[in-house]
Amino acid sequence: MSAHELDHLAIAVPAWPVAGSVLNRELGARWASGFTMPVFNPCQLAVADDMRLELLEPGGAEHSFIQRFLDGNDGRATPHHVTFKVHDIRAAITGAQAAGIEPILVNLNHRQWQEAFLHPKDTGLGFLAQMVQAPESIEEMTLGAPNATGECPWEQLDIEPVRLQAIHGLVPDLQRARRVLVSILGAREFRSGQTPTTLGFHWNNGADLLLTEARPDSASTGIQSLGILPSTETWAPGEYPADLLPQLQAGAKHPELGVRISALRASPVGART
């Protein structure tokens, strides 16, 4: 069990500025870093406690996996992967293999950033999971790099960053996803709400992950919504309200991101689980 942090949610977008402006306006998210590469351009924004959201736009090369990913969603923005920081990437890979999952896109060539991915078809998660061992921050790694983008490319409003308390997703196989998150990625499981089809997963750092098993006739799985709180408030795993799912589903859908953003509120005393 090697993961210690849900580090960030990465979202594929046609271009940074529109999506970045929404994250700034709705979450108070602030530009942290960005750089360009031939096939894709990543930038990161920070909210409370330095929790990150990443925007991935296509690079300038003719063949871009982000462009292909967007094309598969009719060109619309959509979540791409969730990144988990691990202490030992080789141990994480071995743990996945012991569980019958062969990691893909393994790259251990650079000390500053070693990674492997778990394919959604192998995990029951409904989204791509990235495992990363990185002793430095993205800012430290890209400091002075010629392809680094020094300034935010959109106008930032001076808004207090919120806390990204929870990332909610629909999964095709909740019990399989549970085994992956607990046994491979080191999550602590908790009940969230009053439905057996939703489970919560907590790490020492970063947002919680809330997963609901999709109905057999569901047209989509994957990340659906972001549950936010004021920066001064946080919920321990046992403090989630019983009406959590209706709160998440009531959030406004933002097509610039492909997710809902839901301002969470505590239920009346006695309604928590």
What does this structure look like?
This protein has 273 residues and is α/β, with parallel strands linked by helices. It folds into two domains: 3-142, 2,3-Dihydroxybiphenyl 1,2-Dioxygenase, domain 1; 163-263, 2,3-Dihydroxybiphenyl 1,2-Dioxygenase, domain 1, CATH 3.10.180. It is 20% helix and 35% strand. The strands form two sheets. Strands 1, 2, 3, 4, 5, 6, 7, 8 and 12 form a nine-stranded mixed sheet that branches. The protein has a seven-stranded mixed sheet with strand order 10-11-13-9-14-16-15. The longest helix is centred in the first third of the chain and has 12 residues, at 16-27. It starts with a strand and ends in a 10-residue tail after the last strand.
Topology record:
Layout: E1 3-12, H1 16-27, E2 30-34, E3 40-46, E4 52-58, H2 65-71, E5 78-86, H3 89-98, E6 104-107, E7 114-118, H4 120-123, E8 128-133, H5 138-142, E9 163-171, H6 174-184, E10 188-191, E11 198-202, E12 205-206, E13 208-213, E14 222-229, H7 244-249, E15 252-254, E16 259-263
Parallel strand pairs: 1-4, 1-12, 5-8, 9-13, 14-16
Antiparallel strand pairs: 1-5, 2-3, 3-4, 6-7, 7-8, 9-14, 10-11, 11-13, 15-16
Number of helices in the DSSP assignment: 7
End-to-end span in angstroms? 27 Å
Rg on CA atoms, Å: 18 Å
Specify the overall morphology.
Answer: globular
Strand % is 25-35%
For the record, the count of structural domains works out to 2
Question: SSE order, as H and E?
Answer: EHEEEHEHEEHEHEHEEEEEHEE
- The CATH superfamily of the largest domain is known as 2,3-Dihydroxybiphenyl 1,2-Dioxygenase, domain 1
Structural class: alpha/beta
Largest sheet: 9 strands, mixed
**What would CATH call the class of the largest domain?**
Alpha Beta
